[in-house]
Amino acid sequence: MHFSEPKKRFKFLLLSLTLCFSFLFSGMTPSLIRAEEEGEDPIGDFVTRAYTLILEREPEEEGFLFWKESIVKGERTAADLVNEFMISEEFRARDLRQEQQMDIIYHVMFDRDPDEAGISYWLFYLDCGVSISAIINGFTHSEEFTTLCKKYNIVPGEVKPIENRDLNLNVTAYVARAYNIFLERKPEVDGLNYWTGRIAKGEISAAEIVNNFVKSEEFRNKGLSQDEELALVYLSMFDREIDDSGKTYWSEILNNGVSISYVINQIACLDEFSALCAKYGMLPGAVELTCPRDKNYPLTAYLAQGYPFLTNRQATAEELDELVASALNGSRKVEDLIKAIVAKEDCWNYLSDNEAFLRAIYRVTCGKEATDSQINSGSISLNNGITRYHIVTEIAKTADYKARLAEMGIANIIAKPEKVIALTWDDGPNAPVTNRILDVLEKYGAHGTFFVVGNRCRTYRSCLIREVNLDCEIGNHTWDHTSLTKLSADGIRSQISQANDAVFNITGIRPKIMRPVGGAFNNTVRNNVGMPMIIWSVDTNDWKYRNAQHVIDEVLSHARDGEIVLMHDLYTTTADAVEVIVPELIARGYTLVTVSELAEYRGVEMENGGAYFSMRG
Ligand code: ZN
Predict the structure, then answer these.
(1) I need a labelling partner for 55 at 20 to 30 A (CA). Which of 38, 83, 279, 461 fits?
(2) What is the tally of structural domains in the chain?
(3) Are 135 and 208 within one domain?
(4) Per annotation, catalytic residue among 426, 427, 471, 561
(5) Ion ligand 1: protein residues whose beta carbon lies under 5 Å
(6) Which of 390, 447, 477, 568 is catalytic?
(7) What is the pTM of this model?
(8) What is the pLDDT of residues 388-420, one digit of tens each?
């Protein structure tokens, strides 16, 4: 180059500040003049040619020199020249059809008429929304253009910068296809650039494009039916009409309460979608499921199927999301979700009759009709003041319920507390003391076990009902507090069954555990008691000392994970002690559980006639 240094820097600065045909400098440089004088100016010819073919006029001096100069200096390429002419205001103002524009590109870049195949190939992509720059860029790497550029002694180059929609023509075609199928229109440039850009960055997958369009407000506003939406999802992901078996299969899944995103995500795993994606050079990917109800299909299906039985209507998407979300974050078990539905006004209105409620709740929770004995015991419970909530709690303990969850593929996560302890009270009920103890348990949300004496139950029936409703456990402590070791087999069985009947007749619930009087048992007792025998590992001797501080000290000094603590709900001093013990144990990190809960957490399968003193971890 022959420029003097200051001038060169000045021009370079201007060139880098602008891309348009600005008035940059006047006068020809010596080198250019010389080239023209000698009659050999291939680059100049290329520039002139572009003016003639694209703008259909002679170049003006400034423009000619600007282009020639930047090409000679390597600041612009042949591709830049063609591109900037084709996107210039002046060219746009000619308002040519796409075919005419392509004809020009073919002539300026290939020096020939376009062929049919080329035209239809590029018209397809132009129709998808790629820009004319994409064609130019597509041609720059061809042999034909390279050969032409060689002739004019010019670097072919490529178009820079390039819009997202021109980065990958097949990806653009895929996005345009989604616009066409779901929104029934051509994409707008901004939208096309947005989606193709996100795909280029790897932010979203082919499946997520479908999902985003289906979830878009524009699509939702069409208010299509479930079947119509499914048909469009099929068309977009399989490129075909939905068949009857597909419609049945996916409709059933949607009717189980999940959103269309769940279905899209499932379809994204199928080979047919992979095959379609391969045509567009894309990976199917997966949909990021955001609705809680989509994240646990079995649970959502279980709740959605149960809802109409309890409320006489389908659950809304919001209701399912809320329920499933609370199970996903671990704050509620499956039975707690059923309880939440049971608490709804819809349920009370629809199932005001207790028997109707019982039939519905068994159908929903266990997936089968309630037996006569279940209706009978449930009716006793409800008629005597046990809550519907607690009916669900009791059902949740049954094998039928657990089997149903397993059958539905639902994992009911039971958060196992770190430290557990079972407080137990014998010889009640005794309303003045029992109720004070229950007040404390209720206040702190703690559970305990009451081994009741059968012949006291009728007198203190309200205590039993309250114990059940507070999720405490009722155990059998014989009919009249007789030591079982003194009795015959028949005598033992009678003591047990009489007490169990007494509890059942009030609560509708049969005790599952017992405690022999004085903790005493022999082989006859073992063989005839017919229930697990729960003894104890911490003895407060509250009956002997009748001193609250003594009870407090005994419990707190012996408290360990898995202990079973013996007290009696007969003495006010015991109630005084419980008021201190319960909050203190909780403060020390214990969860206060029933004996059956303790066994469940410890994985202990209690056997009839077995004696259990503690269940330490
Ligand atoms: Zn006793």
Answers:
(1) 38
(2) 4
(3) no
(4) 426
(5) 426-427
(6) 568
(7) 0.82
(8) 999 999 999 999 999 999 999 998 766 789 999
